[in-house]
Specification:
The complex is a heterodimer of chains A (287) and B (294).
Chain A lengths: L6 E10 L16 E9 L3 E6 L5 H5 L10 E6 L2 E2 L6 H7 E4 L12 H11 L4 H15 L14 H13 L5 E5 L7 H16 L3 E5 L3 H4 L4 E6 L2 E6 L1 H4 L3 H6 L6 H10 L12 H12 L1
Helix pairs in contact in A: 3-4, 3-5, 4-5, 5-6
Chain B lengths: L4 E12 L7 E12 L3 E5 L6 H7 L8 E6 L2 E2 L7 H7 E4 L12 H10 L5 H14 L16 H13 L5 E5 L7 H14 L6 E5 L3 H7 L2 E6 L2 E7 H5 L2 H6 L6 H11 L16 H14 L3
Parallel strand pairs in B: 3-8, 3-9, 6-7, 7-8
Antiparallel strand pairs in B: 1-2, 1-4, 4-5, 9-10
Helix pairs in contact in B: 3-4, 3-5, 4-5
Classes of the chains: A alpha/beta (287), B alpha/beta (294).
Amino acid sequence: MEEKGAPLIHIEHLYHRYEHSGDSTESEPQYSLRDVSLEISRGEYVAIIGANGSGKSTLLRHFNALLLPVSGDVWVAGWNTKDSTKLRDIRSKVGMVFQSPDTQIVATVVEEDVAFGPENLGIPWEELRYRVDWALERVGLGELRKRPAQFLSAGQKQLLAIASALSMHPDCLVLDEATASLDPVSRMRFLDTIDTLHGEGITVIATTHRMEEAARAERVVALSEGTVIMNGDPRTVFTECEALFRLKLDMPETVKIAMGIASQVTGFKNDALTVNELVDAILGFSK
Amino acid sequence: MTQGVVIDVRDLSHAYMPGTPLEVQSLRRVNFRVCRNETVGIVGPTGSGKSTLLYHLNGLLRPQKGEVVVGGIELSNRSADVRRVRSMVGLVFQNPEDQLFEQYAGDDVAFGPRNYDLSKEEIRERVRKALEMVGLPFSFKDRLTADLSLGEKRRVALAGVFALEPEVLVIDEPTASLDPGGRRELIEVLKQWRKVPRRAMVIVSHSMEDILELADRTCVLAEGRMVYSGGTGDLFLDRNLLQAHDLVPPVSLQVVYGLEDRGFILQGKFPGKSLLTTREVAEAVGGMLHGQGF
């Protein structure tokens, strides 16, 4: 892996438009992404937020060349995604996990699903075995390796999807609403696993409608109608109440509570991103 | 039957693929009751049987063991009037927008009423009222369903259920995958709907914030068993209960408990029951810090 901080994904003036199905009366070309320029560094944790239809998923699908720009360029680890000879390299650098647990598992047994990707790359057996062990270990599914995937819970299936991405030894995990269908306990477990992987150097790019989740990232990018509207650290983005509301977004609950307190108590800091941070702020103030 | 009970589930058990090696017991002797004028939340991990229970409430699944009585109609009776039950109980599935199939939004809303013996004017009136209830103008009927946003599609799907004028609304994960703005709008629609007397609502959600905002009473399902049923506030204010059932409370209460663990007790000063929402917690903490009353 190259050094942390170097650009991993570099996007310049990206436009994207879906082909129209034909039965629509719209004649104006509708861009789902308009002039997006963005850079994501190695080792970064970036949350992408935006209303339904703002272009989040479309943007994500450009990160591993599932979609190609209508105009503009996307580079992944220095390769232009339009260069079809680099497709395999790009796809193995960037692993994706989608929203629905049931639509991304290809094998019947847990360990076979994890082996599927590297097996297709022709990785030798010993190395394959090592990768599968390692990936299952990383997400805590080691003991379930022989289990039929259909008997996993939704939360376990999402962890399996991560393991299957990890077995490709990616530099980057792209999570498209990956926690949306999980119950709260499974969601916490999933997010903790992501934090651990990020701590070990993996780049994480995640979309979510839960602002609490987005606040765990190091940087938040807000999209509206296919354009980047906000791009900054979570503390800055999540205290812009009016802009967030206009974009059909919200603040994390902890920021709302902190702001509620700050409106009564002068000097109380209003940007607590986590429960622990808010508790610390309250206790600190009460001394 | 007690006055006001509109859904009464007694000792209900259900297995998928019974009698095969793949048999999965989904519900185990579940008792569940819904009265008029109340909203009941159902929470529990994936696979705990929540959706299976919902499918029994309008006769999509019929009881294998136990009884389901809806508006006095006994659904374990094979000759029960299921049509009558379905017009009484409106069931909204997860991602209901996936079921829109008409080209125009209005036709989708009108689909249900058209299957009943109603005049054109009556159907038109039902569509108008239903769209209004979900906060959309009547002119929305002429919009192409394919061009709607996710939030709009979901509201059109909900209007299709409202157009049947159910007395009970049963809704599975209403806010999942909506953006925060769409969620706020939908919660408001549901709050408005249930304001009409004698109506009742059953809501399944993984979002404890939804449950806190909507449900008067909450039931917890775990591995097919009903392990708790009681006031929503009582559930979230009882840490032992939350822990026992592996539930994560809403963020506002996580803050209250985080403070409690470090010796900063809010409940003592502000009698427990109302200290639940983001606003209430902010006001309580603000009041204490402002008055420095500790």
